[in-house]
Design brief:
Blueprint lengths: L8 H7 L16 H11 L17 H10 L4 H17 L7 E4 L3 H13 L11 E5 L27 H8 L3 E6 L16 E2 L3 E2 L12
Parallel strand pairs: 2-3
Antiparallel strand pairs: 1-3, 4-5
């Protein structure tokens, strides 16, 4: 699985009703072996590729402090991760972990910034970008396909409960991640991280290794 930000389990359970949810991040390629091999392809600036990415290994608590101090906004953090997805996931080594970008991501971030300025903080996930798997319903412009071409174009009218909780907590939905098609319910010998809609996801720490 691709983890988002490092956060102590006890703090997550304490501060959020979303215990048990795996939150994925756009900073999917932070492992040195992979970065060393592909650094020239993905660029050397802190905002794109390489292990000097400005948000590498940052925690949710640290992001909250940076937004509180004014060093970052939810929009600037969201933009950094969108740029990261473009540089690492879609170009360069092409990790192929993100199956769809949320067209509303920046507008959601702007709303969270406006609420912060007004003194409203929803909780520890306020303004924090997250990714969810493509088998979780989102009542927006994105599809929910579980990675299957058979469901290409399928959209729903309301959020799954877990996503509703995320939105209410102030999280910014960046998009959806690829997965083993049908969450691997299609076969006992299916390929990990492959779907007919999204293709093969690769391991950011070793491109020739199992993505799981």
């Amino acid at each position: 699985k691709i983890n988002l930000f490092k956060m102590k389990r006890r703090n997550f359970i304490k501060n959020s009703s979303l215990a048990g949810l795996t939150i994925a991040a756009a900073s999917v390629a932070s492992c040195n072996p992979f970065v060393k091999e592909k650094k020239e392809e993905v660029g050397k600036t802190p905002h794109t590729g390489g292990d000097d990415f400005v948000l590498n290994e940052i925690t949710i608590d640290e992001l909250q402090k940076k937004m509180q101090s004014g060093e970052y906004t939810s929009r600037s953090i969201t933009q950094l991760y969108l740029d990261r997805i473009d540089a690492i996931d879609k170009k360069g080594p092409a990790i192929n972990a993100v199956i769809e970008i949320n067209a509303d991501a920046l507008s959601i971030a702007d709303k969270m910034d406006s609420e912060r300025k007004a003194g409203k903080i929803r909780g520890p996930l306020h303004g924090i970008p997250v990714l969810i798997k493509d088998n979780i319903d989102t009542g927006d412009s994105m599809m929910t396909t579980a990675g299957a071409l058979a469901l290409d174009g399928h959209k729903v009218t309301k959020d799954a409960f877990i996503l509703k909780q995320l939105r209410e907590s102030g999280a910014v939905l960046l998009g959806k991640t690829n997965l083993s098609e049908w969450a691997n319910f299609r076969s006992t010998r299916s390929t990990s991280g492959w779907s007919s809609r999204g293709g093969q996801t690769t391991n950011p720490c070793g491109l020739d290794r199992n993505p799981d």
